[in-house]
Specification:
Order of helices and strands: HHHHHHHHEEEEHHHHHHHHHH
Family: Belongs to the auxin efflux carrier (TC 2.A.69.2) family.
GO cellular component, one term: endoplasmic reticulum membrane
Oligomer: single chain
Membrane topology: Multi-pass membrane protein
Number of helices: 18
Keywords: Auxin signaling pathway, Endoplasmic reticulum, Membrane, Transmembrane, Transmembrane helix, Transport
Pfam families: Mem_trans (PF03547)
Radius of gyration: 26 Å
Strand content: under 5%
Strand order of the largest sheet: 1-2
Shape: globular
Length: 421
């Protein structure tokens, strides 16, 4: 395929995103005020609870089988690498540009999470449909591309709503204040409840009694070292009881609502339907008796991508005035997402290919490389809206990165195709 054809294939999806973003901006201006602050919050909630999980569920149920799961085992690892490396590079941006604490979660989230749903599911199948596609038969290529991109979208959603979500949550102003308050209360609690008696006459050892009266689940419970006297010696409590106590404390601390977000649940349900033949026969296909349920879920899922993209444009209104103020921060995120990560991805993926650890499919390798070169996830706009942390700044970052991505994604895609063939 000629360079200019590849260029057009990669350019069209990004232009579509920018056009829909512009529509969202128009709907949010005062003259129309269709996507005002209340409307944006309601739409964000709808995307989070309904549109995103149904899109993930329907895509996985239709395209993923047990054979695909075995072949594509490296994709979750590859996506995790993009998040971890992006976070490390994001920390460098935070340090070098001295990002305020309330925006650090936004910067780390944008550097870590790429648009693993919208763009791959448009770009990769579109490459297969072009005349003279470098990936072989059109029908086989398109089917495989849809399966690869769907799994990428599902895994990306899980990582975004568990990894990036918690990054923003950790640095959100309200959460930060709560953590500081809890730390202060814990210090006061320990200082007021720890007592030291005189030395035990029989052993000569000081006995410290820690009395934790806190009943709040947000407080970290101190593990007491309980000792008993037997024949003048100190005997520790059995390790089994200590481990069980630690496990119970850990289970109380885990926020299941964060781990099992609607998108995560949608991914689990979609994988079950796709992998289990009995469920697949019931729900998937023209002859399936319950196909109306699957078709309804698909219709809801189709609303996810345009809704999230509209929200990016609507949130842009709040942040345009701060473009100059946050210029170093924006440049840092653009460099990470559009230049540094894609270059690192080449070394990572090609190294794994040379070791023979992944499926030797050029289309699959192309998608793995593309996952490093994508602009920030559109869901970051939804996450910042949910926490009220850096909404305007997020809009500016999105606008800048997607503007640069018009060129960067196209050029990297062209290079990746040349590299895998």
């Amino acid at each position: 395929m000629a360079f200019w054809k590849l260029f057009i294939v990669a350019l069209m999806p990004v232009l579509k995103v920018l056009l829909i973003t512009a529509v969202g901006t128009l709907l949010a201006i005062n003259r129309f005020n269709i996507l005002g602050e209340t409307a944006r919050k309601n739409l964000n909630t709808l995307v989070y609870i309904v549109f995103s999980p149904t899109l993930v569920c329907s895509s996985l149920a239709e395209t993923i089988t047990l054979r695909n799961v075995v072949i594509l085992w490296f994709m979750p690892v590859n996506i995790l690498l993009t998040f971890v490396i992006g976070t490390i590079l994001g920390l460098l941006v935070v340090k070098l540009t001295r990002v305020p604490r309330n925006l650090q979660g936004l910067v780390l989230g944008c550097c870590a999470s790429g648009n693993l749903g919208n763009l791959p599911i448009i770009i990769v199948p579109a490459v297969c449909k072009q005349s003279g596609s470098p990936f072989g038969d059109v029908n086989v290529c398109y089917k495989n591309a849809l399966a690869y991109a769907s799994l990428s979208m599902a895994l990306g959603s899980v990582y975004i709503w568990s990894y990036a979500y918690n990054l923003v949550r950790l640095y959100a102003p309200k959460i930060s204040n709560e953590i500081i308050a809890d730390d202060r209360s814990m210090v006061n609690l320990v200082s007021s409840t720890t007592k030291t008696d005189s030395e035990n006459p029989s052993t000569g050892l000081p006995i410290a009694i820690a009395d934790d009266r806190s009943q709040n689940e947000n407080h970290v419970k101190h593990l007491e070292i309980q000792c008993t006297m037997r024949d003048g010696q100190i005997e520790e409590v059995p390790k089994k009881k200590t481990i069980m106590k630690q496990l119970k404390t850990l289970l109380k601390k885990i926020n299941l609502k964060v781990l099992f977000t609607p998108s995560t649940i949608g991914a689990i349900v979609g994988l079950m339907i796709g992998i289990v033949p009995q469920f697949r026969k019931l729900l998937i296909g023209d002859s399936a008796p319950l196909r109306v349920i699957e078709e309804s879920v698909v219709m809801l899922g189709y609303a996810c991508i345009p809704a999230m993209t509209l929200l990016v444009g609507a949130n842009l209104i709040k942040g345009l005035n701060g473009l100059g103020k946050h210029f170093p921060l924006i440049v840092g995120v653009v460099v990470v997402r559009c230049f540094a990560l894609p270059a690192i991805g080449v070394g990572m993926v090609k190294g794994v290919v040379r070791l023979g650890l992944i499926h030797p499919d050029p289309l699959y390798q192309f998608l793995l490389l593309l996952q490093f070169a994508l602009p920030p996830a559109v869901a970051m706009s939804t996450i910042t809206q949910l926490f009220g942390a850096g909404e305007g700044e997020c809009s500016i970052i999105m606008f800048a990165t997607y503007s640069v991505a018009i060129v960067s994604v196209t050029l990297w895609s062209t290079f990746y195709m040349w590299l895998v063939l």
